[in-house]
Design brief:
Strand content: 5-15%
Largest sheet: 4 strands, mixed
Number of strands: 4
Shape: globular
Order of helices and strands: EHEEEHHHHHHH
Radius of gyration: 19 Å
Distance between the termini: 43 Å
Low-confidence stretches: none
Number of helices: 8
Helix content: 55-70%
Structural class: alpha+beta
Mean pLDDT: 92
Strand order of the largest sheet: 2-1-3-4
Length: 234
């Protein structure tokens, strides 16, 4: 199978690059950066220019099929290789954890982080004379909801990892790949979100995986750029 990954640097699509390395797949990586994203967007196969996007075909006589949404891509590629999904013969609790955390990553956790970025962008793009209004609105929403919600989610994850090596329990799975990005983003937001020892142990465990390290090189991952981006959202 021929696989192409349309990847935006330092974005959630890094997870799919990592996934392909863990699955030992052959793939072509087409990398975009923020400052050239629009001028090269005509080369992107998806009408909304989404990242990640995976294009795949069985042979050169076929047209490419296009798949987006990180969780859907992860499910599809893991199904092809029959890897990184929790084995159906596993303990029922591990199967439960796998499906829960795999969906929690983008359905519950990432939306709160995205709101942090949205409000930060609103403040940045508000004309200076009235910027205090958007700052006040952001401050109020952070205090009333977002900060507490993220703190609760991090505590919840940390408590789970106190008892489990990986998100599903004993097995490394695609749930860990999907959870890595929002966890990494969250600890950059505020120093109070960096003091969860089980999460820190878990992220270090991830960073020591050879496939993760290879994916970071291929995907042109920059820890410093990623940190700066999310620190500005607090």
């Amino acid at each position: 199978m021929q696989i192409q990954i349309y990847h935006l640097q330092n974005s959630r699509s890094q997870r799919i690059v990592w996934l392909c390395e863990e699955l030992n797949l052959d793939y072509e990586l087409i990398t975009f950066t923020e400052h050239i994203q629009e001028q090269h967007s005509h080369n992107h196969p998806h009408p909304f220019k989404k990242f990640p996007t995976v294009a795949f075909r069985q042979n050169e006589q076929e047209d490419f099929s296009i798949l987006t949404e990180s969780s859907a891509i992860a499910d599809f590629l893991c199904h092809l290789q029959n890897k990184l999904n929790v084995n159906v013969c596993a303990d029922l609790k591990e199967i439960e954890y796998f499906y829960y955390w795999k969906n929690f990553a983008d359905a519950s956790f990432m939306p709160n982080l995205a709101l942090k970025q949205i409000f930060a962008q609103i403040v940045q793009h508000t004309p200076f004379p009235v910027r205090f209004i958007s700052k006040f609105f952001k401050y109020g929403f952070d205090r009333a909801y977002l900060n507490a919600a993220l703190q609760q989610q991090m505590q919840f994850i940390d408590q789970h990892l106190q008892q489990h090596t990986w998100m599903s329990g004993t097995q490394f799975s695609s749930a860990d790949i999907l959870m890595w990005f929002p966890l990494s983003a969250c600890i950059q937001l505020n120093p109070t979100l960096q003091n969860f020892k089980n999460i820190n142990r878990y992220l270090l465990q991830i960073e020591n995986r050879p496939a993760f390290q290879t994916a970071c090189l291929k995907g042109q991952w920059s820890t410093s750029v990623f940190a700066q981006y999310w620190q500005k959202a607090d």
